Hints:
Layout: E1 3-4, E2 12-15, H1 19-28, E3 33-36, E4 54-55, H2 64-74, H3 81-88, H4 91-100, E5 115-116, E6 126-127, H5 134-147, E7 152-155, E8 159-166, E9 169-177, E10 180-185, E11 189-191, H6 212-219, E12 224-225, E13 230-237, H7 249-253, E14 257-260, H8 278-290, E15 295-298, H9 307-310, H10 312-320, E16 330-339, E17 342-344, E18 356-358, E19 363-364, H11 376-393, H12 418-424, E20 428-429, H13 431-445, H14 452-466, E21 476-477, E22 491-492, H15 494-506
Amino acid sequence: MIDEIGHLAGRVAVVGSGMAGLMAALTLAPQPVVLLTRAGLGQGSSSGWAQGGMAASLADDDSADLHLADTLAAGDGLCDPAIAASILRRAGLAVAALERYGVRFDQAEGDGYALGLEAAHCRRRILHVAGDGSGAAIVKALVAAVLKTSSITILPHTDVRRILNEDGAVAGLLCATSRGPAVLRTSRVVLATGGLGGLYEATTNPLGNFGQGIMLAARAGAVLSDMEFVQFHPTALDSSRRPLGLISEAVRGEGAILVNERGNRFLAGEPGAELAPRDVVARAIGMEIARGGRVFLDARRAAGSRFASRFPTIAALCREAGIDPSGELIPVRPAAHYHMGGVATNASGRSSVEGLWVVGEAACTGLHGANRLASNSLLEAAVMGMQVAHDVASTPAAEVAAIAAAVLPVPPDPSAIRPIASRHLGVLRNAGSINTAIASLLPLVESEGTAADPAVVALLIGVFASLRDESRGAHARTDFPLKLPNATRRRMSLAEALQVARSTVSQPFARIA
């Protein structure tokens, strides 16, 4: 029997309690909001693991235009310039809002914010909180603010399994709770469910994050965009730990260099060297590993004895692996870190499904393009969390009738997907590996097993990747190493992607434009 959460019916439902979801819920106050989170409040999200901080052009020698130029360059031709400019120009408003909610950004010794430098930024513009513990500190402050906000009702340990539709519009959420299946009737849903790194064996994300929001929206009929662009962070700590510990770009920003097992600084001739865009660095490291080599981050000269005080979180990860970064090389490797694609949204975070907004990593706004500029993700989460809230608040609730009986899907398990995605949809791709992934994933999608929901997301990556016959940003193909002269974005629904997948399986060499 499925219980109906009747006393909360009609309220705005925010799914996810990372930075984007928390900001949306707080900005909606005093409008009543239901905040549904799979784990505890603020737990299990990538936001809390962010080390690098939040990009914001606040320095006297900086501007939103300079920040935009860096973002567009990193995005490799696929950013939406208008959307990107709109988000970046609201950085000051986002910082002010976060400070009102209790976030305390690190200050310089003299006056003003302590601003760090990261790859592909032309200025020092990275705000931190508690050094390299920025994400955890920001989420902690926002959680405290949510707990003080009486208009927000929290439903922890509630796993949303499906978005319910009525005449093509949102009608409610089908959930698994500690008391059993439950339905929340609502005509307004904000998905803020984070990324999909849990589809890969080597990831810096929570292992349970397989792209739930993308799956929910896709199954509800939403249009997806640019799903092939998975960013692999170049420098995850190469250890037995799962998920892998992240060695923030900020370490390279302070002067650390990358060397192979022979001691060669293999990025020395690349424009920007170690601070080249992430896709460039990740591919270079990937090629070193593919030839059988190893790669290390050398911070001995750059930080030395200051390493532990400057990067306490990273130092603790290294100690756990038996490494002293002040005097030893740090072994690193690429790992799935961030997804630039996702549910296609407009400037207000609206998806193609009436009553469904998507924000944060689950969304594809057009800010990141083919390759996210470092530390733009927290900024997007804050700015778009507020923007979505304003748009939702201006949208009246629709009447939602009683929902017919629904069957709760089985709990999702991405473990069967990880070997497929890791081997065939990783840093370096080709037609053979992509088609193998599609052929392996399609039967899982069409099943009703525990792998079906994660397989939907991985299949979308594979289908989008199969249609991009070039190397651009985070999508690198060894069979199409060059970039096409015209940059094009692609959008399609799950139904359209399944059509492409079935055609690929039945005619491996056929192509559907």
